[in-house]
């Protein structure tokens, strides 16, 4: 018997709610704006908005909705629904609203839609086979393997078993156990309390590709070393982790984050002798009797877990956006994206700051991962007690916990150092002048000094710049000081200090 067709209705966009349970959406207490902003980063929402404005909205494939608590929840086409809502109300996208407004100016002929046709499913359960057919086998917009794993794994319950899923989705029956295994590992590693906050963000923000991690956890010897086992349905025998198992998983994940382990690594190829050595090493880490490997975890795979003064680090405060290069109007340039401190890596314009680790397993931490600024070679030699105190505070600030305080203080010491220099060396007071004026005057004073001119030009650059270059400019320091939404990371502070330090050595450090 053929089921009755689902009704098609025309509904106002304000009646539609984005689906919090959609596999594209991370868990947590989110509102519609948070979901839409997530889709900007994870699902190219701005690109879709541009397509709709340029080519028009096609409703040959209708959004599928279900009525819940009197609202129409979008089960299929959350991305399209979010795009239409953002076109109608750009403010929905927060920091990306300006980009939408510019697209609207670029395509003035486009008329924002306020009503769309939708197909109303009788229930979520009834819609599941349709969603699976659309996204696990449709080549137009197929879900990633990880998304498929989340889809199937999320359906498991006291009333739905793996065998039930095989019967419900017969075309995927052979793959479902692998999806469940991935869903189990994804859930396991997202539930770990990480010693290194940056490693936790790497996992939680899906910068870790589960399809790559699968190469490791699918290996029997790796499972044995970690003390993990799956049953015939792909379910973990236990999700309770010992301290050693947690340590081993963090080491393994840290290697992926540091890019010292990948799908092509000999350590993950069963036939290679390196695999046997790696499995034994991992087992020793889990057992807690391999200090060298623990040091590799702290200094190479997750360098921010170890401070320059030997203390074990706590959580690093890195939330929010890295500072972005402003346009000539002083606002972030929509054409450039700063690196996101928690952000989704791998997308154009968002450079991944993680670099391959040094071949030496116990080499020193890179400069941009230290908990404090590198003050070696600089000592304040001026006579201002207030400025001396500021430098002492800057030297002692832990950048993991107070990156914005340090960034703001960098701006202060740069401006005050220039003023101190002009008073003591040039008998010229710049009292009451702002940072831009002070830097301009410094450039004039050193215009015959090629080295200082080059250093000053580095911090005085304008226009659209990559995030790493922008962080050390006076414009970035001003953005961090004046813009409510700007948020510096510890990497920004290190970048800025690297550019400011040689100038300070010259003007107040001799």
Describe it for me?
There is one protein chain. With 510 residues, this protein is mainly alpha-helical. The chain has three domains: 8-123, no CATH class; 176-303, no CATH class; 385-508, no CATH class. The chain is built from 21 helices and five strands. It has helices at 32-42, 45-55, 78-88, 97-106, 124-136, 145-154, 162-168, 173-190, 197-204, 210-217, 220-226, 243-257, 273-287, 291-301, 385-396, 403-426, 435-445, 450-459, 467-470, 474-482, 490-508; strands at residues 8-12, 16-18, 64-68, 71-76, 115-121. Strands 1-5-3-4-2 form a five-stranded mixed β-sheet. β3 (64-68) and β4 (71-76) form a beta hairpin. α7 (162-168) crosses α8 (173-190), α12 crosses α13 (273-287) and α16 (403-426) packs across α17 (435-445). It is flat. The N and C termini lie far apart (90 Å).
Helix-strand blueprint:
Blueprint: E1 8-12, E2 16-18, H1 32-42, H2 45-55, E3 64-68, E4 71-76, H3 78-88, H4 97-106, E5 115-121, H5 124-136, H6 145-154, H7 162-168, H8 173-190, H9 197-204, H10 210-217, H11 220-226, H12 243-257, H13 273-287, H14 291-301, H15 385-396, H16 403-426, H17 435-445, H18 450-459, H19 467-470, H20 474-482, H21 490-508
Parallel strand pairs: 2-4, 3-5
Antiparallel strand pairs: 1-5, 3-4
Helix pairs in contact: 2-3, 2-4, 6-8, 7-8, 11-13, 12-13, 12-14, 15-16, 16-17, 16-20, 16-21, 18-21
